[in-house]
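Hello,

Our lab assistant flagged a job as stuck in the queue for most of the afternoon. It eventually completed. Since we weren't sure the result was trustworthy after the delay, we are filing this so someone can double-check. Below is the sequence as submitted and the structure that was eventually returned. Let us know if re-running is recommended.
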Amino acid sequence: MAKYDVVVIGSGPAGYHAAIRAAQLGFSTACIEGDKNKADKPSFGGTCLNVGCIPSKALLDTSYKYHEAKEGFAAHGITAKGVEIDVPAMIKRKDQVVAQLTGGIGGLFKANGVTAIEGVGKLLAGKKVEVTKADGSVETLEAENVVIAAGSQPVDIPPAPVDQNLIVDSTGALDFDSVPKRLGVIGAGVIGLELGSVWSRLGSEVVVIEALPDFLPMVDKQIGKEAAKVFKKQGLDIRLGCRVTGSKTTKTKVTITYNDGENDVEETFDKVIVAVGRKPRSTNLLSEDCGVNLDERGFIFVDDHCATDVSGVYAVGDIVRGPMLAHKGMEEGVMVAERIAGQKPSVNYDLVPSVIYTHPEVAWVGQNEEQLKSERIPYEVGVFPFVASGRALAANDSGGMVKIIAHAETDRVLGCHIIGASAADLLQEVAIAMEFGASSEDIGMIMFGHPTLSEGVKEAALALRGHAIHIPNRKKR
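-- returned structure --
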């Protein structure tokens, strides 16, 4: 029986970060991965690299370049005639990007001395890990420490069962061989909006069906309203408060039935994407006597430092509580490896950045106005619209705004919310400042390059105190 200091189940962002960091710290480390790619070879990187963050961004970027060539170049005096999209070529490029990055993880494993093991891992009692190979053979590993990073999978809904042909999940939506004339998207969350915007830019008539009555309820309300306005202007038909009740398929069409709160409505589509969220991949992951416990939703129960109820067994990433975000899992993986080594790092769960990679991007970190109101925390707000940014105007990309919220008494920054070009990258500036307890005055005193989009961050911070230069300041209460 092979024995390791650390055995990691799963090679997604949380898992491969844990494995590489553990190896860097001198531990003998193995990482188990059971997923395979289109070529039936082991595929490292989990959902993010294979069927999530990376391939979706490849399609988002391609579709936006196509949209710009067709619709945006004229504003710059550029004439582009006969612009067409080659969908198979777009999908091939996406697959090449995925192959390069997943292969890169294999290279990083070798460079750091991590043993990659093919198969499906299952935790047994006594910190033993059973590995079932593709041929059905079984191997058992023994470990001083186990890190469970099994990830998540798309949620299915009975009224619209996925067949990966006409009704697809977020994985199937990455592999269309042509542009659907009419596309239905069930779910107006991050995944639904990103995938819907890809195919909308390429020419699909997109209808987004959302059961909740509010659009992006997790987003600051002002930013959410702006996002809804922008996406509708782009052509996304977003229908809120609509609960899907059934579906019928023919050889080429899908008919979805939903209730809009008053009536049953039928809509027919060429393809339908089910994007109603993700659930932990915890089925057949744990033996009954392993000692690790699940909560009522199937997440592994852990403490603030990702330790389970069994000493020496940890769980990280989508399989545990908190937002299902790759970067959150990455930080947890590193934290756990370092805690195994006797160090005392922690993850600051109050400052987990969130991003919707549409165009414009939507990004936020910290608290929003609605949360602060509910907690009765006094606050002030500074907003800077990109229409007042010289760099944004020069790029013909001036939609959106930067919004910074700070404590009314201490001026400490409590949240930042951005909709606009490069929102994700701009947000990180504020996340760093918040990690160090910065005030809005601190940000406003920093010299920013000119002309840049990031000046919007400085101006929003100045606006909070009524000191903005490039917009009229609101009168202080």
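-- support follow-up --
The delay was a queue issue, not a problem with the job. The result is valid. The first strand starts at residue 2 and ends at 9. The chain has three domains: 2-154+279-350, 167-276, 360-464.
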